[in-house]
Amino acid sequence: MDKIMECVPNFSEGRNKEKIEKITDSFRGKNNVKLLNYSGDEDHNRSVITVVGEPESLKAAVIEAIGKAIELIDMTQHHGQHPRMGAVDVVPFIPIKNATMDEAVALSKEVAQEVSERFGLPVFLYEKSASAPYRENLAAVRKGEFEGMAEKITLPEWIPDFGPAKCHPTAGVVAIGARMPLVAYNINLDTDKLDVAQDIARKIRHVSGGYRFVKAMGVELIDRKQVQVSINMTDFTRTALYRVFETVRFEARRYGVNVVGSEIVGLVPMEALIDSAAYYLGLENFSIDQVLEARIME
Amino acid sequence: MDKIMECVPNFSEGRNKEKIEKITDSFRGKNNVKLLNYSGDEDHNRSVITVVGEPESLKAAVIEAIGKAIELIDMTQHHGQHPRMGAVDVVPFIPIKNATMDEAVALSKEVAQEVSERFGLPVFLYEKSASAPYRENLAAVRKGEFEGMAEKITLPEWIPDFGPAKCHPTAGVVAIGARMPLVAYNINLDTDKLDVAQDIARKIRHVSGGYRFVKAMGVELIDRKQVQVSINMTDFTRTALYRVFETVRFEARRYGVNVVGSEIVGLVPMEALIDSAAYYLGLENFSIDQVLEARIME
Fold first, then answer.
1. What pLDDT, in 10s, does the model give residues A2-39?
2. Are B7 and B91 in contact (CB under 8 A)?
3. Measured between alpha carbons, how far is A281 from B279 in angstroms, rounded to an integer?
């Protein structure tokens, strides 16, 4: 695969294994499409599929999966802890290799147009594909959820970007867009005081004055009797992992607290970690092209 | 490519571009073989080619390249600064992905047998493929070089592993074997005193009491007015980059000297750097399978 895009579609079915398999089948046995991971969450009643591929092949497979989900999932019967607005809740495209963000945006719009026409599904473009700043944030788009969407999309400011201004009766609406790879990164502290983790989270996250591409909150790790700064790194190429790690370390010191370790949840692009190694080893004149695997994948 | 081996053959021609290109052509336009790098050194009069591939395809291409080198290079006319004993001086195979060291050893022996039969070339197996411990070290095998080899291989302890106990008239002999990936890693110090770099090199290298998989020496960086501990990491999976970096740092302190940075020369496997990132970030429960590119290559 010369050009690689990633797609991480979220479907509102986390309990019925047979349905999850049928949707996931759209990504199996396809040329230039590789299923990396999929998992259903019973409490959330939601599945997340991680797949990479050549843009055109990936596009066809994603459209097929959306079609199957619309056929199999009835949102009027859906209950789960996670907020959701459609059978296919959200479909982000992520540039991985020899692909730009502009290409990911273009791909998301092509998919949006096709699924709106083929399935009569209203589509909101979000994140980098959004048609207006107030539509960038997924939470803002999804507010009201499936049950409130019938009314919401009749409002002038919430006219869908593609498709009818009318909910699909069983599949609701979908958000499709392009974004940077997300790294779920948690830093663990040797204290059981939740307010320490919450204070540090506030200091590092963008919304309250911290780093531009950091979302963070404090979380209790009950079994470990420790707390965690739970972080979403929304653009590791501009806010680096090591920078956040070192910042949490020096902020923790004022409470007499130490960082005991950190963890990466799920997948992480090679570059996010190699960038941190390059910082700590003080690598001079280093280029990602020196990484054997980067060269093999070229 | 499901299974990937690397091969880094060294040829005794670094000046005649046409000949270098003809040899390198053996690795171009072949299915499941990917030429990563090649370069000729005029002073050394030697070329190094870095290539990866599926074992069987790589084997065929390497044999073809050896044949071309034997045809094009006349060792009776060869002069250069680097020690050498044949037109094809040394051919290491390195397991990269879904391949074991045992498989690399087996592959090296298949190539050794075939080139000895096809071209009448005497072959010494070296490193992990060696038939006796005293033949593991390439420098020991190569001692005497091309000019001394005619006599050396008549000695009972230097009978070749494959082929006749008689030098090829124009191509000499070759060493073929299997080894771990080598990482050329240099650490720079903020002093111009060569003896400081030499002292530290002595402390970290295996031969004088240091780490098992480290070769090191002190080098002057005249232009920078600094010195460097120049290192070959011969198995980064067992002696890690960060461990050597931190050791050089604390050894430098006794001279009031600081590490200013480090550098990787040429290619480095992803895992060598990710392992260092995992150390510095204190990553808990991390697996290389969480790296997106590792999953894509699977």
1. 899 999 999 999 999 999 999 999 999 999 999 999 99
2. yes
3. 11
Q: How close B274 gets to chain A, by Cα (Å)? A: 6
Is the predicted ipTM greater than 0.90, yes or no?
A: no
Check: pTM over 0.95? Answer yes or no. Answer: no
**At B171, which amino acid appears?**
A
Asked if B151 and B197 touch (Cβ cutoff 8 Å), the reply is no
Alpha-helical segments (H) within A123-215: 138-142, 145-152, 194-204
Q: Which of B6, B264, B293 is nearest residue A283 as measured by Cβ atoms? A: B264
For residue B87 the two structure tokens come to 């037109």
**Which residues of A does the annotation mark as catalytic?**
82
A-chain residues within 8 Å CB-CB of B281? 241-242, 245, 262, 273, 276
Q: Which of B44, B82, B168, B206 is catalytic?
A: B82
CA dihedral (B207, B213, B219, B225) positive or negative: negative
Do B294 and A294 lie within an 8 Å CB cutoff? no
Three-state secondary-structure class, residue B294? helix
- Residue B13 phi/psi, 5-degree rounding, is -155, 115
Name every residue whose Cβ is closer than 8 Å to that of residue B180 and which is 6 or more positions away in sequence.
Answer: B94, B101, B213, B234, B235, B236, B237
CA dist., res. A198 & res. A213, Å (int): 18
A282 and B262: CB-CB below 8 Å? Answer: yes
Amino acid (1-letter code) at residue B274: I
Q: Which one, of A49, A180, A296, lies nearest residue B293 by Cα?
A: A296
The helix or strand, by DSSP H or E, that contains position B216, with its residue range, turns out to be strand B214-221
3-state secondary structure of B239: coil
- State how far residue B272 is from chain A, nearest Cα, in angstroms: 9
